[in-house]
Write a structure and sequence with these properties.
Layout lengths: L3 E7 L18 E2 L2 E2 H12 L5 E5 L4 H5 L5 E4 L4 H9 L6 E6 L7 H8 L7 E7 L4 E3 L2 E3 L5 E3 L3 E4 H8 L7 H7 L4 E5 L26 E14 L3 E3 L2 E3 L3 E3 L7 H14 L4 H4 L12 H14 L2 E11 L9 H12 L6 E6 L5 H4 L3 E12 L11
Parallel strand pairs: 1-4, 1-6, 4-5, 7-12, 17-18
Antiparallel strand pairs: 2-3, 6-11, 7-10, 7-11, 8-9, 13-16, 13-19, 14-15, 17-19
Bound molecules: magnesium ion (MG).
The site of magnesium ion has 4 residues, from strand 13 and helix 7.
């Protein structure tokens, strides 16, 4: 049995990176493989690890777990909190911790780090600097300055103790602060951290994203009850009836949400917004659609088009189709050209024909964000 576990840090919100893009950097794709999975697979093959644990953003745990056999756990608000959550699951005395932002980990660096197992409480790769360095007005001797990288190998118990004493940006600084020994080994220029979207050039030479499309379909029905008007695709429509529903009953948006979730394989609306949850009582469904589209963009997808068919015998919907397309475009931040809302009756057949309710069928097509075409990449 190995004495070391691997923890991959993939829980960040990529706030600096997302000033340029809607995608989180851990979801940039090499082919169809997201960066976090690429890092976990690559590192897990470089040494014998007893456990492999991936820290994920809470909303993405289930989705990520579907894609790997490794253990995916819920991260915290900071890198350190996420790592502490992961360490709670680690059963080995040592842990190698890697950040997804340093996705190009040379095998030699892993060998250099792992080769010093047991020699210090923390072994970290580091590189020297070529620029002149000034600190608080004082010029430092360049040869004394080191930039500390990851992955770092740490003694779990020492690390947990060290983390108890404050907030740190990495394991080596925490262990050094608590009096533990840190051993620096030669790092690599290739371990540069992908932080801002203009640094996408770091991905040059890697496999570009899969260029195919992903289709999704959704279907929903809501019954009428006595009331004063319907909301469909975010538009209020006068009617002598209302929808019987836990939410605002916007059956068009519900079908659309299911189509979006279906295209990326992320469950269905009932899992995301359970009708047993009081938080969603009477909720404006456009807010739910916004949350879903934000998730979908965050994990690297873009909407090509959405096509909805609303089946209603009454009220007459043709005067509202254009407003519905506009509203869906606004909510999803896509041009109206990419959205189609169609309305049909069912020739007086079935529950729709008997004017007992409305059914909606929705189809969407998505594609992966192509970082090679991004302006920041072509600078
Ligand atoms: Mg519904």
């Amino acid at each position: 049995m190995s004495q070391v576990s691997l923890v991959v840090m993939g829980a960040g919100e990529s706030s600096r990176f997302r000033q340029g893009l809607s995608i989180k950097k851990q979801w940039l794709r090499l082919g169809e493989t997201p960066l976090w999975k690429h890092v976990a697979l690559h590192l897990s093959k470089q040494a014998c690890f007893d456990q492999v644990i991936i820290a994920a953003s809470p909303k993405e745990v289930k989705y990520m777990q579907k894609q790997v056999d490794f253990k995916v756990i819920e991260g915290g608000g900071t890198r350190q909190e996420s790592l502490q959550n992961a360490l709670a699951r680690v059963k080995t005395p040592w842990v190698l911790v890697s950040d997804v932002a340093r996705f190009d980990v040379p095998s030699e660096v892993i060998s250099r780090v792992m080769g010093r197992l047991g020699e210090a409480e923390c072994v970290a790769p580091a590189i020297g600097v070529s620029d002149t360095v000034s600190y608080q007005g004082e010029y430092l001797s360049r040869s004394e300055v080191k930039l500390i990288q990851t992955p770092q190998l740490s003694h779990v118990e020492s690390l947990l103790l060290a983390f108890g004493q404050g907030d740190f940006t990495d394991e080596s600084s925490a262990i050094a602060k608590s009096g533990g020994r840190v051993l620096l080994v030669e790092g690599s220029e290739r371990l540069k951290k992908l932080t801002h979207s203009y640094e996408l050039t770091l991905l040059q030479g890697f496999e570009p994203p899969f260029g195919g499309s992903y289709g999704g379909s959704g279907f929903d029905v809501h019954a009428f009850m006595e009331g004063e008007g319907l909301r469909l695709a975010g538009v209020d429509i006068p009617a002598p009836v209302a929808f019987k529903a836990h939410s605002d009953g916007d059956v068009a948006i519900h079908a659309l949400i299911d189509a979006l979730l279906g295209a990326v394989g992320a469950g269905d609306i009932g899992e995301w917004f359970p009708d047993s949850d009081l938080a969603y009582k009477g909720v404006d469904s456009t807010l739910l659609l916004q949350e879903v589209i934000k998730f979908i963009r965050g994990i690297g997808f873009e909407l090509i088009n959405a096509d909805l068919t609303i089946m209603a015998q009454a009220p007459k919907l043709s005067p509202y189709k254009e407003a519905m397309e506009r509203r869906l475009g606004e909510v999803m931040e896509v041009s109206r050209q990419r959205i189609s809302v169609k309305a049909t009756t069912t020739e007086s057949l079935g529950f729709v024909g008997r004017k007992e309710g409305v059914a909606v069928s929705a189809q969407v097509v998505l594609k992966l964000l192509d970082w090679t075409k991004h302006a920041c990449f072509n600078r």
